[in-house]
């Protein structure tokens, strides 16, 4: 769960490798969460796992592998199976997310078609998609139970400070826990009822790392902590037409008024002269 730094404001949906997540750091793309964490740790000289023993690092590696290569696919299966629930559960407004004026009805149809069809192929190719829904949910519950037992009553997996394992767990469990309560999701319900310590971990990580959580979720702004540049004063065709119309309705400036008055006086004099000339002709 890293934020982008020094990037342009054009929203990208995939890295050049075709992967998510990815970040751009000073114009350079870094894809895959493991590589992202490793690169950022090296560049900013801040290793989250510096205090861990070799044995703890091995345990963390095994847990992260379980999450990335098993639990994540359980979640992916649910999304491909119930794309409607995904849109409702995450309160996704595709028009806002994609920055387009295409009607949401069309966008939702395309989303459900792509996720349902393409996603289900990936889930089956991975292997987890060939099982029954009951079996797949049981797989996910087993993974959550392992994490819950390992965390126990500690604030973080290896003590009082978060490590890479805590970051990875938060990134995946937040996608389970923060689904809207009105949407049925067995894995979230199991986590809430049987693994309350994992719920506590998710909320601790959120409060610690994302004080702007609500703003991020509302505006889809990954850099809400950075000051915003002044918006450029650009007018579209409608605004330009409106300004032109308003300008036509405004009163003329004093100089313009004088010119218009002189023109009117000249016209009046010309009319009077024509009348006099016509009277003279009639008299003759």
UniProtKB/TrEMBL annotation:
Transmembrane segments: none
Domain Thioredoxin-like fold residues, every copy: 13-82
Listed Pfam families: GST_C_6, GST_N_4
Domain Metaxin glutathione S-transferase stretches: 141-205
Basic and acidic residues composition bias: residue spans: 227-284
Region (Disordered), start-end ranges: 221-284
InterPro entries on file: FAX/IsoI-like (IPR026928), Glutathione-S-Trfase_C_sf (IPR036282), Glutathione_S-Trfase (IPR040079), Metaxin_GST (IPR033468), Mito_Protein_Transport_Metaxin (IPR050931), Thioredoxin-like_fold (IPR012336)
Entry's family note: Belongs to the FAX family.
Protein name per its UniProtKB record: Failed axon connections protein
Protein source organism: Cryptolaemus montrouzieri
